[in-house]
Write a structure and sequence with these properties.
The structure holds 2 protein chains of 2 kinds. By secondary structure, chain A is an alpha/beta fold. Chain A has 13 helices and 8 strands. Chain A has 2 domains: 117 residues, Rossmann fold; 108 residues, Rossmann fold (3-Layer(aba) Sandwich). Chain B is α/β, with parallel strands linked by helices. Among the domains of chain B are: 263 residues, Rossmann fold, CATH 3.40.50; 63 residues, no CATH class. Chain B has 23 helices and 10 strands. Classes of the chains: A alpha/beta, B alpha/beta.
């Protein structure tokens, strides 16, 4: 099975190791992973800022670069949501293109959905031990229905104990450019998330989206918490953390 | 109501710093969110109930003109007078005219958000007519120097019991009470004389029923009956979009409204009011009810949404679930939004009704988390509508220059891999350098919105693509392509599960 890996901007720039963990998981499950090097961004920052044209340009680019693959895998719920959930609507008036985009979107997966729902993996390639709590990222949860998959995958490793926090599905306050435009509101929201993470007792929060990761980790560190770990689910599943 | 949405940012800062408000707003998640979650489980099939109700609302809106006309005929046939107002200000004038016509000196009001759009109390005051709010929450706000409501269902949700105790003691000139039933009794003592001396009652209208010419009202305090049945004149003020074709439609929507709003299966009071008191003064005539019933139906921007990309918004049944579940509303409260309707629904309605240029922050001040869409009983795609408003702001050049330039630069680069890749590589180096030995960025030019309150944890090293290229150079799969974006032409590597594991890559580096 040939997989086109869509790295995403933030993994590429901010946390490249997550991309490598994701590839490790895919390869361990028998996939051939390729990374089209021309890829850039899914267009979400522009789309959410109201620049629909930019999203269209980048959706066409995505189509050109990834149409030839059996599946496309994205290690981020919000980029995955942008592609699967929003791309088809961008081409409402161009039926041929829309159909091609739709077909590709139907083969585009958020990492844990792909591992769990499509590959039905039953073993993990790495070791990880400890108690974690899982934060459900908004787009993955609400646009793609990612909720059971990461938990089921973590359950494959009996050494991972998941303790649910209160309001795990509540937004962390990131919201893309919102976090910068309304930094004070964003911070108030992430503070509540952090309160819930701490209250869970787990010393490690696991999630599936880079935006939430930078937001939660950045606030934890600023508040002097240097020990609560913030990990992407790929790192935990691959045993790379 | 005056629009103050342009002060959003400054107000948000004040509200975030207001410790008492922050404490008061916690009620939202503990009480309303949990209540709704429990209440919807009572329905055998919540999704089916919701889909059915949505279809009925859509059917009503698809032929709104027809149903309004039918409503007008039926209401008129039952003795009511139906009036239309293009603007909320026109509607306020109509209500004042009605009051003057009947020699009204005092108006008792049941809760109505449309009357807030109309700034009705101010119009009545100006005409020398005394308006008395009788919903407990609205009463509290009125005696607190006409403070505006901060929530469409629970107007004083921003206040604590202690604040209300202080207010009552000051305004009522009675000993300070702290027991809620006692405080309510005291308010009732003050309201009762108003009910009995009221010349005209004004209520909102949750729904209008076309087939019977009725208004349906969902309330919890019993004040509504005292406003609509006791005075000689009853005026219903509501939006033109509130028409439902049949009582059957009302039943369908009624299963969702209180559950979504307050977590109740049904509100304490549920009234369907039709026409005037029949045979007034004659033997065998109805003993109760108004002699005169008026409906003042307000457009106020609603008809402008019909047939357009915001039509879904007209389905709104004003339950408030979107704000109860909104992470932003939960932190800043309703007053920050600066007009009648706060939260996600207000962030769509305010720019739509008072002008996009008068509420620039509202569509932007959302995390787009999507929870409002999930809990909306009418499945209004609020995040999509907010995004469309952002699109309109951009099209009309209503965003700051810096933001527009930034967006243009990003778009230019993202479409050009040859430019984008080296830029990302450079950014990676710069961030790592700025992070220094601490591996943490605490302040950075142009990123104050982030670094003011959060660190930025920089990347640990080269970009993913660099590492991938390096790995490919070692004979691994996925060799970088030099071809343009023509797409993959075939597998470039042959490895399956037997391929090199990432332990040979620089993952740990």
């Amino acid at each position: 099975m040939r997989i086109g890996f869509f790295v995403t901007c933030l993994v590429d720039l901010m946390r490249p190791e997550i991309g490598l963990s994701a590839v490790k998981l895919l390869e361990a499950a028998g996939c051939t992973v390729e990374v089209p090097m021309q890829q850039t961004c899914c267009g979400q920052p522009g789309y959410n800022s109201g620049d629909t044209d930019a999203a269209r340009v980048l959706a066409r680019k995505f189509l050109a670069e990834f149409e030839g693959y059996d599946h496309v895998v994205v290690p981020s719920g919000s980029c995955g949501g942008m592609i699967r959930h929003h791309y088809p609507a961008l081409f409402r008036d161009e039926p041929d293109l829309r159909n091609r985009i739709q077909a590709l979107c139907d083969r585009t997966w958020e990492l844990t959905s792909f591992l769990h729902d499509v590959l039905k993996v039953s073993a993990l390639p790495g070791r990880f031990e400890g108690e974690v709590t899982y934060h459900d990222s908004c787009s993955g949860l609400r646009e793609l229905g990612v909720q059971a998959q990461p938990r089921a995958l973590m359950a494959l490793n009996p050494a991972i104990r998941v303790t649910e926090m209160r309001d795990a599905r509540a937004c962390c306050g990131f919201g893309g450019t919102f976090s910068v435009k309304y930094g004070d509101i964003s911070t108030a929201i992430v503070d509540e998330k952090i309160e819930n993470i701490h209250a869970s007792g787990a010393r490690c929060v696991v999630l599936g989206d880079l935006g939430c990761m930078l937001n939660i980790e950045g606030r934890l560190r600023r508040c002097g918490d240097t020990t609560t770990r913030v990990l992407h689910v790929a790192q935990v599943l691959a045993g790379d953390a | 109501m005056q629009v103050t949405s342009m002060h959003f940012k400054a107000r948000a800062g004040q509200k975030l710093a207001d410790k008492r408000l922050q404490e008061n707003l916690k009620k939202l998640s503990t009480k309303w969110v949990a209540g709704r979650a429990q209440a919807i489980t009572e329905l055998d099939d919540f999704e089916a109930t919701r889909d059915d109700a949505i279809e009925r609302r859509n059917r009503a809106l698809a032929n709104l003109d027809v149903w309004i006309e039918r409503f007008e005929q039926q209401a008129t046939a039952r003795g009511a007078t139906v009036l239309f107002a293009e603007t909320p200000a026109d509607a306020a004038k109509l209500v004042v005219e009605i009051a003057r016509k009947h020699g009204v000196r005092k108006v008792t009001k049941s809760k109505s958000m449309v009357s807030e759009e109309m700034a009705l109390n101010r119009a009545l005051d100006a005409a020398g007519i005394q308006p008395v709010e009788t919903d407990l929450g609205e009463y509290i706000l009125q005696i607190n120097n006409n403070e505006p409501p901060s929530h469409i269902v629970a107007p004083v949700v921003h206040k604590s019991k202690d604040e209300v105790s202080d207010l009552f003691a000051r305004v009522h000139q009675r000993p300070r009470l702290t027991d809620i039933p006692q405080m309510t009794r005291e308010a009732r003592e003050f309201l009762r004389p108003h009910f009995l001396s009221s010349d005209m009652g004004v209520s909102g209208g949750n729904f209008l029923i076309a087939e019977t010419g009725s208004v349906a009202l969902f309330t919890n305090e019993g004040n509504e009956g005292m406003c609509t049945v006791v005075p000689k004149v009853h005026v219903v003020v509501t939006g033109i979009e509130k028409v439902l074709p049949t009582l059957d439609d009302l039943a369908a929507v009624a299963r969702l409204l209180p559950r979504s709003a307050t977590g109740q299966s049904i509100s304490n009071y549920f009234s369907i009011l039709t026409g005037t008191r029949e045979g007034a003064g004659r033997p065998g005539g109805e003993p109760d009810g108004p002699d005169h019933t008026y409906f003042v139906l307000v457009d106020g921007g609603r008809s402008g949404l019909i047939g357009g990309e915001f039509q879904d918004m007209l389905r709104c049944i004003r339950c408030g679930a979107c704000m109860n579940h909104c992470p932003v509303y939960q932190k800043i409260g309703g007053h920050t939004y600066g007009w009648v309707y706060p939260g996600p629904m207000g962030s769509v309605l305010t720019p739509s009704y008072v002008g996009i240029e008068n509420a620039l922050d509202l569509p932007q001040a959302a995390t787009m988390c999507g929870e409002c869409h999930v809990v909306c009983p009418m499945k209004i795609p609020l995040p999509d509508l907010l995004r469309k408003l952002r699109e309109k702001q951009l099209d009309r050049r209503l965003r700051p220059l810096g933001e527009r330039l930034g967006l243009m630069a990003w778009k230019f680069a993202a479409a050009r891999p040859g430019l984008y890749r080296p830029m990302v590589r450079l950014a990676s180096r710069v961030l790592k350098f700025v992070g220094g030995e601490r591996g943490r960025i605490s302040s950075m030019p142009l990123a104050g919105g982030w670094t003011g309150t959060r660190d930025l944890m920089p990347p640990s090293g080269p970009t993913f693509k660099e590492r991938w290229a390096q790995r490919s150079g070692q004979g691994g799969p996925g060799a970088p392509r030099s071809s343009g974006p023509a797409g993959p032409s075939g597998p470039s590597g042959s490895s399956g599960p037997s391929g090199p594991s990432s332990s040979s890559g620089p993952a740990g580096g």
